[in-house]
Amino acid sequence: MCLGVVGQIVQVDGMVALVDFWGVKKRIRLDLVDEPVQPGDYVLNHVGFAIKRIPDEEVAATLAFYEELIQAEDLMAQDVRTDLQAAG
Amino acid sequence: MQQSIGGQSKSFSQQFRDPHKARALLRTLERLCDEIGREVAVMHVCGSHEQAIARFGLRSVLPPRLHVIMGPGCPVCVTDEPEVDEAVVLARLGHTITTYGDMVRVPGSVVSLAEAQAQGADVRVIYSATEAVALAARTDREVVFFATGFETTAVATAAVVLADPPRNFSVLSAHKYIPPAMEIVAEMPGTKVEGFLAAGHAAAITGWKIFEPFVRRHRLPVVVGGFEPLDILAALAKLLELIRDGEARVVNAFPRCCTPAGNRPAQALLWRAFEAVGGRWRGIAHIPNSNLRLRDEFAWVDARKRFDLQGGLRQLWSSAAPSALVQQCLCGNIMAGIAGPRDCPLFGKECTPAHPVGACMVSSEGTCKIWSEYGQSIEGFFEQEAVR
Q1: Please, are residues A1 and B149 in contact by the beta-carbon 8 Å criterion?
Q2: pLDDT beyond 50 at B388
C-alpha cells in the first residue's frame, strides 16, 4: 500500500492525468503534485495521487550520487593496489 | 516502447537496477564494514524498503556484519486493535467500509473486517481514497473510508476531505506520523541501531530537513533513500560512511524525489485537514503526536464524530475472549527492532500468512509476511544474539 511508483504522464485533463506505468495506464489525481505537469513528465505516485514531478536533472543527480560512492571505491582499490605493489 | 529520459538510452527503471553498479556499491559496503571493524545495525522504517530488500535478495549479498533491521514502518501492522474494532463496529451498524487491501485481514480485539464481512458486513478493498468517494457518490448508503497509512498516504486522504466529498462519505482515520515513532525507537532500551534509513516517498512530502531535530537529539545519522536496488545500496553506503566517521547528520540519497523542504502544497493540505495527537502504535507504545486525527472543523466527515461508536465497542469488547496465541505474539518487539521473526515461538508454526496471529504476518509490508514469502535467509543478528 505504501509503495511510491514512478510513471510517465500521457495526458492531462484538469486535476486528473492518464499515467503510463510501464505499459499499464491509470488515472491519477494531481491535487498533491508539487508543480505543474505535462505529458512526457515523470511523476512519483502514491495511492492514486501524483506526489512529485521528477525533473530530468534530479535523475542525473541521483545517478551522479551512485557514481560518487562507486568512484570512492575505485580510488580505494587503486590505493590498495599501490600499497600492495610497494610492499611487494 | 519506453521513452528515454535525460538523453539516456536505458529505461528509467533500468538505470536504477544496473547490476554492475550494484556490485560496485556492494564492494563499497564491504570496505566500509571493514573500516568500521565491528557489527553494525541500522534501521529502516518503511515497508517498501523491506519489500525491495527482500524482493531483490539484497540481504543475502550484504556484508554479514551489516544488519538492516526493519522498524515500525508497516502502517497496517501499527494500526492498533481498537482502531480495527471501530471499523468493525461501523461495519456491523450496516455502513459500507472501504479500506486498503491488507487492513481487511488484520485481527482486531475480537474479529477482523474479513470476519465481519463473512458475517454479512459490507467491506470493500480500494486502491485509492478517490474510489471510496466515487462509491459514496453512487449510493445512498453511508460509505466510511477506514484510512490507514503514514503521512504519504494521509495527504491523499486530506485531499479528498478538502475536495468537498458527498455527505454520506466519512473518514475513520488511523493515519500515523512517522517522525515521533523514530524518537521512541531511538530511545528504546536494548536498541543497537546506529543509524536510520528514512523512506524516500514520505520525505518527498515532508522534506528531508524534518529529520534534523531528531539527528541533533539522538546523535544518530539519517539517510533518505529511494526504493530501487541501487537507491537502497547507495543509501546504506552513505549511512555506513557517516557511522564510520561518527558524523550525525541527514543526507539525502534520493535527490530525484526529495528536497530539503519537501512538497509544501501537500504539507499544507495535510495539516489543514489533520492534527497530530498522541496514540498507541500496535505492540509498540503510546507515542506522543503520532496519530493523525481530523480537525474539529471537519467533524461532518469524521466517522468518530458522525456515529456513536461507544455502545458498539462496549458490546464488542464484552464478548472478547483474550487469545492465548495473541499474548505470545512478538510483533511489537519485531517492529521495534529488538527481536526478529525467528525469535517468535509462533513464526511459521501457529502464525503463517494463511493463518496470521499478528499484524506483521498479515500485511505485504509486514516483516513476518515478507520473511515467510521470500524465504529470507535469517542467519544474522538475532540468531547470533541468541547464541551469545
Answers
A1: yes
A2: no
Q: Which three cell numbers stand for residue B275?
A: 492534527
Mutate to test the interface with A, among B78, B257, B274 (most CBs of A within 10 A): B257
Can you say whether the dihedral through the CA atoms of B18, B23, B27, B33 is positive or negative? positive
Q: Please give the mean pLDDT across all residues of chain B.
A: 88
Nearest by Cα to B299 from B159, B142, B170: B170
Homologous superfamily of B19-322 in CATH? HypD, alpha/beta domain 1 (3.40.50.11750)
Q: B264-298: buried (b, 16+ CB within 10 Å) or exposed (e) per residue?
A: eebbebbeebbebeebbbbbbbebeebbbbbeeeb
B131:A48 CB<8 A:
yes
Residues B20, B23, B24, B27: what is their CA dihedral angle, to the nearest 10 degrees?
-170
Domain boundaries, chain B: 19-322, 323-383
CA dist., res. A59 & res. A63, Å (int)? 6
Q: In the prediction, which pLDDT does A82 show?
A: 61
Q: Output the nine-digit C-alpha cell for B331.
A: 510483533
Class of domain A1-54: mainly beta
The answer to whether the Cβ–Cβ distance between B153 and A76 falls below 8 Å is no
How far is the alpha carbon of A31 from chain B, nearest alpha carbon, in Å? 7
Find the radius of gyration of the CA atoms of chain B. Answer: 21
**What residue type is B122 in one-letter code?**
D
Decide if B155 and A49 are in contact by the 8 Å CB cutoff: yes
- Pull the grid cell for residue B216: 541533533
- The separation between CA B291 and the C-alpha centre of its own chain, rounded to angstroms, equals 13
Per-domain residue ranges of chain A: 1-54, 56-88
Q: How far is CA B152 from the centre of its chain?
A: 10
Q: Are strands B96-100 and B123-126 parallel, antiparallel or unpaired?
A: parallel
pLDDT in tens, B53-71: 888 888 888 999 999 988 8
Considering CB atoms only, which of A49, A56, A77 is closest to B159? A49
Per-residue pLDDT reduced to its tens digit, B24-52: 999 999 999 999 999 999 999 888 888 88
Go through chain B and tell me how many residues it has: 388
CA distance B321 to B310: 19
